[in-house]
Amino acid sequence: MAIHSQWCQSLVEIFGEPPITYMNTQILIDTTSKLVADDKGLLAMDESNPTCDKRFAKLNIPQTVESRRAYRELIVTAPGLGESISGAILYDETIRQNMKDGTPFLKVLTDAGIIPGIKVDTGAKDLAAHPGEKITEGLDGLRERLQEYFQMGARFAKWRAVIAIGDEIPSRSCLEANAHALARYAALCQEAGLVPIVEPEVLMDGAHALEQCRRVTEETLRNVFIQLNCQRVLLEGMILKPNMVLPGLACPTQESVDKVANITVKSLWRTVPAAVPGIAFLSGGQSAELASARLNTMNLRFKSRLPWALAFSYARAIQQPALEIWQGKETNVKAAQQALLHRAKCNRAARRGEYTAAMEKI
Question: Which position among 133, 199, 201, 255 bears the catalytic label?
Fold first, then answer.
């Protein structure tokens, strides 16, 4: 503790102000280390109620509070989930829900060795005077909400910014506004003792080529880290959740797994400081198999040379097969859980560079 206090005092002497309270610094570093340890990753189960209901509707699952609760119980009770998943990102409704027997989901997760997290933004809204661009909202009242979530048991949080590629977009003002909001959110998280997951997502929607996505991704990340430093965010106490560098879904040229892996890592090398402990990719509309294969190739080729861990923070790329099997029926719960666990194990293998297509035939 004495050494830690001396280190913080040196920061004060150099920069004039400590980045966060002395007490929170070690908490943040310890939590971040646990989230990226043992080749595990994050499970994003933080879909808003409207988004969750839309996915249910496609499968003719009732769009009710009880259906959402039952589906989330299926996920958190999957046996052995903690062997591949270090943290679960929850939605406000989810963090307050219980199992059918009354046991809080938070207790089920922590008993499984999974750190609970919480989505805290309130969604992307139209950016005024910028057609086709969005700004993520939710800073009003965030300090108080973060304090409540910490008291409930959450130890990390997530905020998502969305960046679209199109004719003359993204604009500089869109990139800077979203980066500033991400940084303010991250600083408030660290003040509350919560590790911020910083998620600037360059969307896959559109016909843009791989090279255009690379340029936009790099410019997005440069803006984000400029703002994080301006807001005195402790880089050692955060996790970056970016997109992989990919061609748009409508692009006629869909690049190989190897090319995507190479250009993604090169872009991260150019933009992400070595002080960041981990990069947990979002899946962003990729198929489950491609999300695993691309992450695997990155780790297989580059892991020994990277300053940060390359992990995963997937939602649909882990959940979707299970949801399609479940279909809202109690009799399908075990089979759905097996599918969920399979995808989680595939992605843990990808962190080790050990994932193969043969795993999908098991």
Answer: 199
Beta strands in the chain (DSSP E): 41-44, 85-90, 115-119, 124-126, 134-136, 156-163, 195-202, 239-240, 278-281, 309-314
Per DSSP, the three-state class of 132 is coil
Distance CA 233, CA 225 (A): 9
Tell me the mean pLDDT in the region 118-127: 97
What's the pLDDT at 362? 61
Closest to 88 in 3D by CA, of 67, 68, 108: 108
- Single-letter amino acid code for the residue at 324: E
CATH topology of domain 28-355: TIM Barrel (3.20.20)
148 in catalytic set: no
Residue 105 contacts residue 153 (beta carbons within 8 Å): no
Give this prediction's pTM: 0.92
Whether the upstream peptide bond of residue 104 has omega within 30° of 0, thus cis, is no
At residue 112, the 3 state secondary structure works out as: coil
Which residue among 40, 134, 158, 241 is the active-site one?
Answer: 241
Residue 345 falls in the annotated catalytic set: no
Residues 61-87 have pLDDT tens digits of 999 999 999 999 999 999 999 999 999
Domain ranges across the chain: 28-355
What is the spatial distance between Cα 29 and Cα 111, in angstroms, rounded to a whole number? Answer: 22
